[in-house]
Amino acid sequence: MNVADTRAALSARGGRLFAKIPVWPNSLARRTLLTLLVGLVVVQGAGLTIHAFDRMKLQRFAELRDLGMRSMSIYRTVVGTAPGERGAALRELELGPYMRATLAGGPAVVPEVMEPPYVGQIRVNMGLVQVRPANRPRDVVIRGTPWSDPINIGLQMPDWGWLNLSAKLPPPRPWHSREFLLAFVLMTVAAALLSIWAVRRLTGPVALLAEAAERLGRDVNAPPLPERGPDEVVRAAVAFNTMAARIRRFVQDRTFLLTAIGHDLRTPITRLKLRAEFIEDDEQRQKFMADLDELDAMVSATLVFGRDTADTEPAVPFDLVALLRTVLDDAADARPDVGESLSFAGPAHLTVRGRILALKRVFANLVGNAVKYGGAARVVLDPSAGLAIVSIEDDGPGLPPGELERVFEPFYRVEDSRNRETGGTGLGLPIARNILRAHGGDVVLGNRQGGGARALVTLPA
Ligand SMILES: Nc1ncnc2c1ncn2[C@@H]1O[C@H](COP(=O)(O)OP(=O)(O)O)[C@@H](O)[C@H]1O
Ligand SMILES: [Mg+2]
User: 231-309 is classed in which CATH architecture?
Assistant: First the structure.
């Protein structure tokens, strides 16, 4: 699966589960962060609301208590004054911006059947102001709501008339000071920053692990993951490194076996060649020798294959364009007769990461095949979205559709008279594919529209 496939698979999955959330991000870090930040805002918002309501309630409580005592002390002053001077006494009182007081023959408000609950608060606190028993109000009427309307209080004086008070409570203040709000915002920002930092730190290793897996796919000999950090991260890194080491050993064991077999076959082949000298019949001897030579060539190719794959040549960044040009130059030197039909098209430079010698063998074989079987090699390099795509085209007969994949099997050669004199062993393509796949790339063969074959190489850039 390449990078684009992975991305498509990821977004398909994300899309299914969270299609309804338009801002739901794809990365683990962003998801965790979004969840944390939304949670933080909700918790802080709820905390602030609870605090504000509590404060407002407390504030009202204090104001109502104050109102009860103030109305009673106004009443006491008015009642203690001779009836004719009461209006003047009232005017002299400092009532403050929220309170108005008038004298009248009756209450300014009609008593309610049911008094609102806050009225009890006012009444209780009226009792806290001492009034001579003879001067006690004959009747008390309270109306209004403490939140918006003015509260009207009517107090009936014992001798004549009513003292009517109208109090408009100041608007509620949900928080006490500017500093409180500032501190609250600072707190929220600090918590948010801490979350960002923590999420970054915690999800970093996941990205690292994905990167390492990707690297291992391109190069079995990639350096191991650092085994540092929190316990879980160390465990994951150790497990990953162990897995990588096992894969490496498995690959090494297989190639070692292959080269060992190849090696051991050499001696009997040499012995057979010596013995063949004693065959009397000339024709038989020649055929026998030819078969042995072919066998020898196959064994040599097998050994080369083993050496190539077991190679611990390090993967390094290099210029793919320079490598392709070198391969073409070499091919032109080897076959001056087709020199004209060798060409390169593509950017001036393209840096990729890989094992230079192994990749050189890949392109040498593909260009060699194009020249050998197609009489030309037009190489086109096309860098696109994290991939280097190299196509190698020729002017030959191409391949029967059924053979396009079979030629990648070891020692398989298309049975055709033209192959007789070419003298290959049929290991070039399998080796090329093996090397490319070890780099996280691949190679396929196809036929061009106008005739001729095309080898298409992909290589992660
Ligand atoms: N460009 C090409 N055009 C036609 N046939 C090809 C081409 N490249 C490879 N082949 C076929 O695939 C076979 C396998 O190729 P390869 O693995 O390189 O082995 P070799 O070149 O040693 O025969 C070749 O024998 C040939 O028949
Ligand atoms: Mg070949």
Answer: Orthogonal Bundle (1.10)
